[in-house]
Amino acid sequence: MSTLIFLGLYAILIFNLVFWLRIKSGASAIVLPLLVIMTVIVSFTFEYHFPLLARFQNTYRQTWKNSLMLPWMRFGNTLLLLVIDVAVFSLAYFLPLLRALLVIVGIAWTAYLKSFVFLRAFSVNRS
């Protein structure tokens, strides 16, 4: 269910971004920054939602609430997660050998790196 919700959200956001980028009007100057902010919020929520589902037993509503709040409460960890994503995909784009390695190993290596950040983000006693 969560996957379909995120696919729907991203489809709506991408459609709106493309639509407002092609429309050259004064309204697009107002709408585009709002769409970018919404895309960032959805992306941050996406980063935490599925690890929260896997790690904790909460109600559906509580999981959504936590996945909306946690990126902002643990903003340093959120930035580290995004740096890992950007670094892996940038290196894969520029280095063909790493691209082949990602095909062989899969994205599991990225998930393994991110799991350490999630462990730190989900811990109650932060040092």
TrEMBL record:
Keywords: Membrane, Transmembrane, Transmembrane helix. The chain crosses the membrane at residues 5-23, 29-54, 75-95, 101-122. This is Uncharacterized protein. It comes from Schleiferilactobacillus harbinensis. The lineage of its organism: Bacteria, Bacillati, Bacillota, Bacilli, Lactobacillales.
